[in-house]
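pinging the channel bc i need a second pair of eyes. not urgent but kinda urgent?? the chain im working w is below, pasted from the shared doc
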Amino acid sequence: MSTFKQHSILPGFNLAIGFTLLYLSLIVLIPLSAAFIRTAELTWSEFWTIVTAPRVMASYRLTFGASFAAAMVNAFFGLLVAWVLVRYHFPGKRIVDALVDLPFALPTAVAGIALTALYAGNGWIGQFLEPLGVKVAFTPLGIFVALTFIGLPFVVRTVQPVLEDIEAELEEAAATLGANRWQTFSMVIFPALFPALMTGFALAFARAIGEYGSVIFIAGNMPMVSEITPLLIITKLEQYDYAGATALSVVMLVISFILLLIINLLQWWSRRRSSKT
């Protein structure tokens, strides 16, 4: 008869899981449950009227659409940046590596002001784009630019350590078997990177959905055009419409949770498939 032993340097599983659940309850579960409790004061018809108003629906489409598009772009370019930082040595590499983390450290309001100054009609970049018919500042395109800016580090820092751990012998073996560079990347390297890439995509997407500070300066905040849902929640709070604000918050929470759950299931499926191959 074999006995199961759990090796751990912690004082004990029961104590550790107790502190974990207590901390998560105080920091995550209780604040989130407060939004649901406040929303429960509304009738179903009142709730449905609030969350399906035309102005609100337009903010949903813009928020989730721009967040998804920005996360997709960051997934591609984040992989490219991580590849360059891991596989190549060049002058100024440490500076480039530090610049990747700049959106982490930069206050979101500062990022919004800087992007607005760059892409406004008289900005360094905007003055060349607007004569071409491309207006970035105070449009949905500006929101996309801001969300791309703040989401890039999540992909790079998630993919980079996995890429560093991939053994060069695997690529050498593939080349020995006659694989070209594209076949080696698509059949050997990318399957190993895919779970980390999906994680980075999920983090960038989740971060973009809740972004507020950097967006409000460059968006223009025009109802039905460039108004994001977090701004609409703040607007309702300023109007003392707490029930309406919590109703929108609940919708954002539920949709975000469902999307992240789907992405986590895809990650689990990818890891399971890669472990079998």
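so The longest helix spans residues 242-276. and DSSP finds 13 helices and no strands in the chain. — does that match what u expected or am i reading it wrong
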